[in-house]
Amino acid sequence: MQISPLLENLIESLRVLPGVGPKSAQRMAYHLLQRNRAGGINLAKAVEEAMTHIDHCELCRTFTEEKVCNICKNPRRQANGQLCVVETPADIQAVEQTGQFSGRYFVLMGHLSPLDGIGPREIGLDVLQQRLESESFYEIILATNPTIEGDATANYIAEMCLPYNIKVTRIAHGIPVGGELEMVDGTTLSHSFVGRRDLNL
Amino acid sequence: MQISPLLENLIESLRVLPGVGPKSAQRMAYHLLQRNRAGGINLAKAVEEAMTHIDHCELCRTFTEEKVCNICKNPRRQANGQLCVVETPADIQAVEQTGQFSGRYFVLMGHLSPLDGIGPREIGLDVLQQRLESESFYEIILATNPTIEGDATANYIAEMCLPYNIKVTRIAHGIPVGGELEMVDGTTLSHSFVGRRDLNL
Ligand SMILES: [Zn+2]
Ligand SMILES: [Zn+2]
Q1: Are residues B28 and B86 in the same domain?
Q2: B17 to chain A: nearest residue by CA?
Q3: Which residues lie in coiled coils (chains A, B) (predicted)?
Q4: Are residues A98 and A113 part of one domain?
């Protein structure tokens, strides 16, 4: 006997969230209904607006509701000739918090993974190539995760940079192998920037 | 530097969900944006509709978008003179799944907790009293959690039933002390119904 179709639907819908199983979806639904309807209404609006208006920055591919994000638009950032290539928008957050970097970013939204059908186009390397053609960067800092896939992706991009005579570096020092960039503390991440090494082939 | 106010707002809003800290809120937001925008739109709609339209059943207090819920409206359920008192709507779900009970429910939406200012009115005992006055029940089954508060609440209701000469029972067998009703497996919960004991004072 279904008591409340709207409640069933709410519980079911909450399961699109990663890590949310049937029991926690139920707990979340009851919590919103019983303790925080205003928070629930806010949440609904925030999700709807984000899903509808957030797209990718045309230059760096990070999530933004503008055509070009605030970092790419910033003249001080543009004057700095460094481009930091990261896997995810969360990695930008992590690098920004170190205060060590004042260049711009390029977000792959993943890494190369040929077995899953994720090739250069899927991680936006055609867009990156266009930028290498049209802009003059002093240095490309490859800040993909220190995993097998992240390393392979970094190497692929390093080769891609060869014709352009740009300094290519790979962040290195301090990040535990197999770890994820966004989980690393700020100090470690700072070190990995300072200790970056040449990848010019 | 805030890159996307809508994204920041989404991450912040997700934290109204119980058990969701800043890191998992961020993971959820990126997941929706990158992998499941349709699921996100659905979620937004489901939350909005649930928050707006779900209220409490006038008779049993469970969550429903109707004035009176499907169980309270059911003539077969009405013909059965048993009323099962539970703490939460999730407990109804759990009892229904045992298939052992075909009466109606009364949902306290909590338990007595004088120190937190939760007295008889806050758990709807005035509504229950009115039902005891106006309907004739054969039996009140007290299925509050087997915790100190659940036991105290059960005893309070048992005393409340004294003037009405109704059989009052307390589910007992099989539920681990200190446990929560909705976490118990169906067999254990069935046993606790079969093994219920008189609480008539
Ligand atoms: Zn950008
Ligand atoms: Zn009802």
Answers
A1: no
A2: A28
A3: none
A4: yes
**pTM for the model:** 0.81
Tens digits of per-residue pLDDT, A173-193?
A: 566 667 777 777 777 777 677
pLDDT in tens, B12-67: 999 999 999 999 999 999 999 999 999 999 999 999 999 999 999 999 999 999 99
Q: Which residues 138-197 on chain B approach chain A with CB closer than 8 angstroms?
A: none
CATH of the domain at B140: 3.40.1360.10
Q: Do B87 and B166 belong to one domain?
A: yes
Q: Integer distance in angstroms from the first to the last C-alpha of chain A?
A: 67
Q: Of chain A residues 88-147, which have a CB less than 8 A from chain B?
A: 88-90, 92-93, 96, 109
Contact A39 B12 (CB under 8 A): no
Residue B18: inside a domain: yes
Q: Provide the pairing of β-strand B167-170 with B197-198.
A: antiparallel
- Domain of B126 in residue numbering reads as 81-170
In a domain, B58, yes or no: no
Ligand 1 mean position to B45 CA, how many Å?
30
Nearest to B54 among A7, A36, A39 (CB): A7
3-state helix, strand, coil in chain B (%, to 5): 50, 10, 35
Please tell me whether residues B92 and B132 are part of one structural domain: yes
